[in-house]
Amino acid sequence: MPFVVYIFTLSAFALGLAEFVPIGLTDVMAHNLNIDIEQVGSAVTTYALGATLAAPVLTALTAGWSRKRVMLTTVLVFTVGSLAAAIATNLSTLLIARFVAGMGHGLFLAVASSTAARLAGPKKAGSAVAVVFGGFTIAMAVGVPVSTYLGGVISWRPVLGAIGAFGALGFLGLLLGMKEPPKAQSRESDSVGQALKAIFNPVLLFAALVTVLGYAGSFTAYTYIAPLLTEVTHVSSHTVGIFMLVYGVLAAIGNVIGGKLSDRLGVNRASVALIAGIAIITLGMWGFASSAVAMGILVALLGMFTFAAVPALQARLIGIAEQHAPHAHSVAAGLNIAGFNSGIALGSLVGGTTLGTLGVTYTGLAGALISALGLVVLLVQLARSGGVEYRAVSGVGH
User: Hey, what domains does the chain have and what are their CATH numbers?
Assistant: First the structure.
């Protein structure tokens, strides 16, 4: 395995931390900046919006760039944004910095897996992709809960600064150690115009809507999990890190289970089951928010079901692209990343609105309703397509 692939892993680890660490630190950051919790939640929204914009659009616009140039640019943008967020003194600066960092996130993940596969060669391509996304998985399972704990005990600023430092190490590693991968043997996205056209393909956009709504439901409930646990479940702020740890570990396991479940049930049935599961779990988080035991189980299941849905939803979108935009696989992958991150953005926005109007207890109910809407959209698509099946795709791919 080329050593630079492990540099990709380090960068993916930093991206995973950047995306999810603020979720566990919303109350800590709000107190430090003297703002409302839902305003801190908008830091999650803006990061996800940056990733949403960058994943499909900048993937298309940089189609003619060398892969090394693209990856260096993305990691540099991410690092600058992350360091700026760590020293932000007000909400506006924080949001701008998070949006910039998110732009680096979206474009990096859109090209990292394919680049790693080319560098490793066809015999080790699958392993290379798994190694890259392993960094994201480790961030979810270990890095986020540890960072949540440290942010609560020390301060959130050194945590965000450390994320920027990981990004800087990734930049240096890519600069010094990366060679250009061999040219792909496909005609995919030969022109910027063709790639941009694929982004606005209505069939692909409608398919991506399922990802948006499914994850929006999940993150409507999860973005404000820290205040829900401290204010309603009545656990200590330090204990929130344990819930985050359970979520992260089950998310990593769920990503593996999701691929196997898709192979066994088929991508369509697995997608239906998993999105329905998210709706039921978030509904349970509304009904049993006062029970620490129930919330522990529900948070674990939410992590597992949310990330188990990734392989199935990614396979559906790429499979649909093969039929309607056959030379735009990378754009389809970018749309999947955009769908995931726009779901996070929409979820954090709805969650913040719900918190501000009805109270944090109702974020679970709001999440259940949005996930249920995603399930309805999926069932409509399946009815229209006649239930055409696609092959599962492994890897986190956010």
Answer: 3-385 (1.20.1250.20)
Q: What is the pLDDT of residues 233-260, one digit of tens each?
A: 999 888 888 998 999 899 888 878 887 8
With beta carbons less than 8 A apart as the criterion, state whether 134 and 396 touch: no
Q: How many CB atoms lie within 10 A of CB 231?
A: 16
C-alpha span between 367 and 289 (Å, rounded): 14
**Tokens 């692939």 found at:** 5
Distance CA 378, CA 165 (A): 41
Rounded CA separation 315/393 (Å) = 5
Which residues lie closer than 8 Å to 14 by C-beta, 6 or more apart? Answer: 78, 82, 139, 163, 166, 167, 170
Question: CA–CA separation, 277 vs 371, rounded Å?
Answer: 9
Burial class (CB in 10 A: 0-12, 13-18, 19+), 264: exposed
Locus of tokens 């996800």: 48
Q: What tokens appear for 27 in the block?
A: 């109350």
Tens-digit pLDDT profile for residues 366-398: 999 999 999 999 999 998 877 666 554 445 556
Predicted TM-score (pTM) of the model is: 0.81
Cβ proximity of 91 and 35 under 8 Å? yes
- 15: Cα separation from own chain's centroid: 9
